[in-house]
Amino acid sequence: GNERSRTRRRRRGCDRSHTLTAHDGRGQRGTRGRKLGAREETTTTTGCLECDGDQDTMANAAPISMKECLLLPSLGINQQYISFTNLTMESEKYICVREMGAASGGTNNVVIIDMAQPMQPMRRPITADSALMNPNSKIIALKAAVPGQTADHLQVFNLDTKAKLGSHQMPEQVVFWKWISETKIGIVSATSVYHWNVDGSSAPAKVFDRASNLNGTQVIKYMVTPDEKWCVLIGIAPGSADRPQLVKGYMQLYSMAQSRSQALEAHAAAFASIKVGANTSPSTLISFAQKSMVNGQLVSKLHVIELGTPAAGQTPFTKKQAELFFPPEFADDFPVSMQISKKYGLVYVITKLGLLFVYDLETATAVYRSRISPDPIFLTSEADSVGGFYAINRRGQVLLATVNEQSMVPFISQSLNNLDLALAIAKRGNLPGAEALVGQNFERLFGLGQYKEAAVAAAESPMGALRTKETIEKLKGVQVPAGQTSPLLQYFGTLLTKGKLNPLESLELGRLVLSQNKKQLLENWMNEDKLECDEALGDLVKNTGDSDLALKIYLKAQATQKVVTAFAERGQFEELVKYSGQVGHKPDYMYIMQSLLMSNPQAAAKLAVTIAQQPGPPVDVNTITDLFLQRNMIREATSFLLEVLKPNLPEQAMLQTKVLEINLVTYPNVADAILANNMFTHYDRPRVAQLCEKAGLYMRALQHYSDLSDIKRVIINTHAIEPQALVEFCGTLSPEWALPA
Question: Do 375 and 369 touch, CB atoms closer than 8 A?
């Protein structure tokens, strides 16, 4: 390790021995016989701390990336207020700074920095001894001493509405306080710990008394688990007379269920929740870091233990511990904070002098060590959205530490030679870099006949590396005895418990359950948003005759053309037009009409009406009519035209003539009924008269002819004309046409 460090320094052109190699000290060896441990790099936002070098190469290879998000003095914040006493950061959303006196222009201010727009700080003229921004909302808690008393007055305000949400005067001085949830504040006095629910009007409720080991300490941290069953309080005190710089750390762990405390030595701690093995319920863990003198020896350790007793049938978490390796020049340095990444399952231990230790939570394996700040760090806050943390140093740098997703897994597998850990973290954080490891593990398990394990490994592969058609086909080919679950079902089952199937997997699972007549399962998974729908899955379901479920799939898949066709086939034309407008789609009505004419002529006729009634019809009415007539669908064409021509407009004369023509030629009785209803008045009357005569509708012909010769020719067909109708018709003729007496 030291030789590698020297080689690395030579490549950077550096002749100073400031980069130190650390290992986990447990004497474990990897598969290649090399000692496992944490490699150290010096990576900061301003370059190497003691020399210049190839910083870009180092930063790209490092598993942790550091970035300066903000420099507080650039916002006009005086250096003297960048301290633990004046600055708070309750979450990744807000930083709150108190400015006082002459250095702030003679006024007392509270500066609120929204990390979403940090260059637009909000200054409010507020006098307070402490200010805390709510971790999620624009709500501020203020603490001020009561004049002439050893008591503090607490107030909570909504900054948007200007409303006071709560107010209480504590009977004793508050030495530390912190938001422990969005609605509750933890309050620490010299003797006790209280919880105050600011949503109501109730006073703070006492939770427990401080342990004696915290007497005379400066409280720097208070935390509770999300279920509020466990609390931890941490304080620090000056070191011994012979070594005052080595600050002592004390911790009080309190169980709400047992109403009992445990006193320990620790500088930093954090709670976490993980599932152990195949447990159905998560275990609550606490990790804490300590550095102290034991029998004249300096001992620095990280501990991870389970809190409480596991439920019946649950596998307990085996407690872990690992050494924290401080370089000689950091002998008096100590942890000031700990953050745990839920996303990656990593423990971040941050020290006062800017060292960062990274450990795997589940195994307490050392992963990485780096100096991230040349200036003392006094505050950190979890950056939950990115799985990292913020750190603020005395210079006013707000640093963001995040996992370098491209480098983390290769770093662990190559630099630490810890393939199991590399694979575990890749799965946990869905990180790249483990594709080869995952593939080898799958093939090994498959070759050993451990098909269930192979299926689970494929389903859990990071970045979905093995979630491929090849894997599915391979699992399909495994023959299992009757009554046993197939590896393919095990594969799908694992995926369904963890998240959502991709389109290929959804289609294959659909085929599987439909072949077993278990369509309801498919619908349940869809409702739970477990399937990635596409056209192929919709087509598969449609072929079973379930058009309702098929339409749901097409809608989720945003398969616009399929949705439009499905609405058309169902006769839901208003929905079709509405949907097309919502998605900005111009349907190919000609294609849809042609499809429907072959499968559902009645639906085609309804769609034709919907098309024609749209403003500026996308398809000409004549064109639609011709589609029907080309297929000899006279009835459908007639139905369509009668609906469209209801307004009886002059510009519809040609179409009125057309609908009468086609029926006089093919269905004269229909034409007769149309004429009897007097629906149209603008058609070509001479043309219709001729067709009526040919069709044997002599009375209709007489009503339409206006020339005497035509009337004389038709009127002699008295055998086909009702006498009464003939008499009435003659009464309408001009007297000039009457025979002379």
Answer: no
- The length of the chain in residues reads 741
282, 496, 584 from 573: Cα distances, Å: 51, 36, 16
What pLDDT does residue 482 have?
Answer: 82
Tokens representing 381 are: 């806050």
State both tokens at 186.
Answer: 């933890």
Please say if the pLDDT value at position 704 is more than 70: yes
What percentage of the chain reaches a pLDDT higher than 70?
91
- Dihedral sign for Cα 328, 331, 336, 337, please: positive
Name the β-bridge partners of 114: 94
Instruction: Identify the residue whose tokens are 């190469």.
Output: 57
Which residues contact residue 22 at a Cβ distance below 8 angstroms, ignoring those fewer than 6 apart?
Answer: 37, 38, 39, 40, 325, 327, 366, 369
pLDDT at 60: 55
Whole-angstrom CA distances from 445 to 311, 433, 464 are 31, 20, 18
Q: How far is CA 298 from CA 237, 351, 380, 708, in A?
A: 17, 16, 25, 129
CA distance 57 to 184: 45
Q: In the chain, how long is the greatest CA-to-CA distance?
A: 152
CA distance 234 to 217: 9
pLDDT of residue 208: 97
CA distances from 201 to 20, 130, 194, 498 (A): 55, 21, 15, 42
